[in-house]
Amino acid sequence: MSPIVQIRDLKVEARTDSGRRVAIIKGVSLDVAEGEVMAFIGESGSGKTTVAMTLLGYARPGCWIAGGEVRVDGVDMAALPEKERARIRGTKVAYVPQSAAAAFNPAIPIMEQVIEVTRIHRLMPPEEARRKAVELFRALSLPDPDHIGDRYPHQVSGGQLQRLAAAMALIGDPKVVVFDEPTTALDVTTQVEVLRAFKTVTRKHRIACVYVSHDLAVVAQIADRITVLKGGEIQECGTTTDILERPQHPYTRQLLDAFRPAPHARAVLTDDAPLLHVNGLSVGYGPPGANGKPLVLAVESVSLTVRQGTNVGIIGESGSGKSTLARAIAGILPACGGDILFDGRELWDSARKRSRDQLRQLQIVFQHADTALNPAKSIEQILGRPLTFYHGLRGKARDARIDSLLDMVHLPRALRHRRPGELSGGQKQRVNVARALAAEPKLILCDEITSALDTVVAAAVVDLLKELQRELGLSYVFISHDLSVIEAICDEIIVMHRGRMVEAITPSARQQPKHPYTRLLFSSVPKLDPTWLDGLDPQSERMQAASGG
Amino acid sequence: MKARVPSLILHRLLIAALTLLIVSFAVYFATSMLPGDTATILLGQSATPEAIAGLRKAMNLDEPAILRFLKWIGGLFRGELGTSYANNMPVAALIGDRLLNTLKLAGLTTIIAVPLALTLGITSAMRRGTLYDRIVTVATVGVISVPEFVIATSAVLLFAVYLRWLPALSLTGDAHGLMGMLRVYAMPVITLTFGVSAQMIRMSRAAVIETLNTPYVEMALLKGASQSRLVLRHALPNALGPIVNAVALSLSYLLGGVIIVETIFNYPGVAKLMVDAVSTRDLPLIQSCAMIFCVGYLLLVTAADVIAILSNPRLR
């Protein structure tokens, strides 16, 4: 039997803003058999999503299929006219988007959008389609399957929307489903449940899947075979176990190495007075209520201590208050209770009232270098500003210092005349770190600084931070939702859940967390072992076992 | 969730009422500051000081301005718009027929311009980058850049002077039967349609293009939806807010901004009445006309806001 997907020598071109034509996919060939799950893995810009989308005969605006064949169930999607392609979309090939939150139309109830495929292609009467959708909701273990479709997209959670998007893809009984990073935007605890739901349903219906991801551990759970892409070309293609255990290509090895970070050598604890001591800090949003507290408390009486030369990690899912905590420590968002001691002296709750020296010693690095760096300024100007502001450096002295800062973060000195828009994501994040270093701080608050980066790039940034720590004796408060990153750099991990500190734990003791939520969180982090997901108990049982034990 | 819409709408209505109050204040005092004393103007330059003082007393012009303002506002609420200085007729009677005429002209223009503009805007958004889109864009930009009086006088030159199809003046008295109506309204309506459509075409095109670039429209495309389904079902409901606002802003122009058109075609509408009132310094008439324009403007903009609120399920 011939494979259901046959891609032969696929070429995709794009037109740049300056009108130049560039090849973004340079001759890709691969097969996917019926019922098989094929994963595309690679960093951003590797072309994995572009290849996956050609299965639907689609290229994003500005791109087009320039050559080759994309046969789905015998039909060449690349050669079909647009009308014929539309007939196949949703019925033979379906698509599950990266961000379901953005892919659902905000103005239409969910059910209407889920069954829209059956309306467009006149597959079945609406009543029947609704019954089928409810069955799918049930199979994808969505809560309240009978009524969840009546809601609007903004009324359900991100994890639920992602499963609803899968239902939307499956309603037309497709033979192939393209999953485009469907769990990247989700918290780990949610991701596990969504992955499990996808796997159960697609396996039951023997649907061939193309699963696009940059997360090797997630892919290991779901894929039969893995294709590694880089620069629009296939680097390596093999079964999941082959790729994980016998990687051939250097890039694949790099990916795997990034996943197994060297464990952090615990800093020697000194009995020095703590560098930062946060005591019972509460932070909230909204106007103060009757009790003098803000309307919504995002952080509730959290205490932590950072000693000179050590790092504290804060982990938790989105909405747990970890970024709010960092902003309060930095004085961007004044706290409404508790106090902050820095270097033995109490800090004002608002950055405006702190002395220039206090500001200098406590720096913050934000998650998105894209928005944190002024796009209109050159790197030189971005780094020069804190040098002048804090140290009064000008002219040649400042130039020399900018060079040494660029050296420190391993960026070529020639980059100083560029603007942030001309740099890659990893380079921008390095500039972001260099700007904090320019102040010569004692403590840097790192707010999710690796979460927008690819695995390999993120690992390099973490290595850089470690190196800087050794050389400059810095301390970090490292905020992330990614346990492996936190483990790689932190001496102590603080687990946050719904604005409260649930547990403080050392990485070496992380096999024996005490709090049930910590256990749930830690056990939800995917492992490279392909049998990990199948061996994992459902969330409810893990919660129960955790609280029982 | 449910209770938010009524409170939001109520909020809009309150703001509209407050705006109207501020505007009436501004209108009253701005017109009062017009150079020249009303009594002097009415009686002419040769009037004796005693006569002027007598008239001022009779017209209550010697009272403090704030008191006169309150009296005027109170009158407005009771529907008394005052008496015209120029011919001693009640302002309400003067405005009545004229307002009807203006509304007729505005209504006819709306019926033609709104569907035309939205169709052109939406279709050019659907075919963006094509020759059709470019022609529409160039034409609308061209029309925006040509002043209304040029369009109006060109129309008169072409249709009335050279072709002699239509009368140069639009006297509503001639509007008998369908052909009569056509002859009277054709040129002003064409001129106004040119003026108001361009803005609506640009805005609706931009709004639809913006929503066409969203991930949910891409998702619908990947579900196999046709072009028209993408636009009508997925893009348009989400572009409704900006489009309705653009339409309301354009239409509000039909109430107050038609001075040039009404003057050129000698059409007996409110705008022309106001221009005449300014030349005779007929303050009560000017004030009432200004208030009518403001009320019309606020009604349209508030209606657009309410529609935008109702069309957003996040607020429902």
TrEMBL record, chain A:
Membrane-topology descriptor: Peripheral membrane protein
Primary location: membrane
Keyword Nucleotide-binding included in the entry's annotation: yes
One Pfam family in the UniProt entry: ABC_tran
Record GO terms (molecular function): ATP binding
Domain (ABC transporter): residue spans on this chain: 5-256, 276-523
Protein localization: Cell inner membrane
Keyword ATP-binding: yes
Keyword terms, alphabetized: ATP-binding, Nucleotide-binding, Transport
NCBIfam families assigned: PRK10419.1
UniProt similarity note: Belongs to the ABC transporter superfamily.
Record's protein name: ABC transporter ATP-binding protein
Source organism per UniProt: Azospirillum oleiclasticum
UniProtKB/TrEMBL annotation, chain B:
Topology term for the membrane: Multi-pass membrane protein
Sequence intervals crossing the membrane: 12-30, 105-123, 135-163, 175-196, 243-265, 285-310
Zinc-finger in keyword set: no
Keyword list, A-Z: Cell membrane, Membrane, Transmembrane, Transmembrane helix, Transport
Origin: domain of life: Bacteria
Compartments where found: Cell membrane
CDD domains per UniProt: TM_PBP2
Residue ranges occupied by any ABC transmembrane type-1 domain in the UniProt entry: 99-304
PANTHER family: DIPEPTIDE TRANSPORT SYSTEM PERMEASE PROTEIN DPPB-RELATED, PEPTIDE ABC TRANSPORTER PERMEASE PROTEIN
Protein family according to the UniProt entry: Belongs to the binding-protein-dependent transport system permease family.
This protein's name: ABC transporter permease
